[in-house]
Amino acid sequence: MSSVPPPSAPESGVRVRAGSIPPMMLALPRGARMARVAAGCRAAALDFINRVSVRPDKAVLADWLRGAYRRHVVPVASMRTRRIDSSGVMPGALAKLLTHARLEVLTALEIARDPIEGVAFGYSALASGHLYRARDVEGNEGWVPVAQPRMRLTDRVLSLVAADHLLHSADYESTLFECMRCEQWVFDAERVDGRVCAAHASDVRELVPGASRRALAG
Predict the structure, then answer these.
(1) Residues 173, 113: contact at Cβ < 8 Å?
(2) C-alpha separations of 169 from 30, 204, 218 in Å
(3) What is d(CA 198, CA 55) in angstroms, rounded to the nearest whole number?
(4) Pairing outcome for strands 176-178 and 141-147
(5) How many other C-beta atoms lie within 10 A of the C-beta of residue 158?
(6) Would you say the C-alpha torsion 187, 192, 197, 202 has a positive or negative sign?
């Protein structure tokens, strides 16, 4: 399976304070909060699923790695970014890579949505070494994704999912769904039963009369 070149160390986003890196716990900088880190990981993972992975565009993938992904990970070593361009990339290779990564991530999301299997997903993520335990200055604990050299693209995305899931597993069990109109994955407690995202809720109301329409509106 092909690997994606690792991003360089972040200029902003998740960092750890010098001299404060014990083997089992990272200290977030004063301005960072675990809740915001988890929310950022969720947003970056959904961006990959809903946008980056649906079309084979090297520039889009590179921008995601250097932007949304890099802002929410801790590199284990100083790493240089190799520009992703057309040289050395076989025709169809990027499409195959993205398709495979998307399939694996979506399979993992289905597992994370299950109350029983989701526990195993969390343990597997911790055992992979792709997450570090962390604490912010207010004492809130959680996990941050780790960027390792030559890490698989799938594992990069799954580390984002896991960092959020380990703090908010209930959201995955009760509010995560794929919109049946646009096939976008969203978290929405109000619309999870209808399986239609906010952007397409009005489309469904136009097709459903009377009492059924009022039920959807609720």
Answers:
(1) yes
(2) 26, 29, 25
(3) 23
(4) unpaired
(5) 26
(6) negative
Of 170, 150, 149, 169, nearest in space to 161 by CA: 169
Q: Where are the domains of the chain?
A: 1-174, 176-218
| Local structure of residue 89 (DSSP, 8 states) | -
* Segment 67-124, tens digit of pLDDT: 999 999 998 765 454 544 444 556 589 999 999 999 999 999 999 999 999 999 988 9
Q: Answer whether 175's CB lies under 8 Å from 188's CB.
A: yes
Tens digit of pLDDT for each residue in 163-188?
Answer: 999 999 999 999 999 999 999 999 99
Q: What does the radius of gyration of the chain's CA atoms come to, in whole angstroms?
A: 19
Question: In this structure, are residues 5 and 58 in contact, taking their beta carbons and an 8 Å threshold?
Answer: no
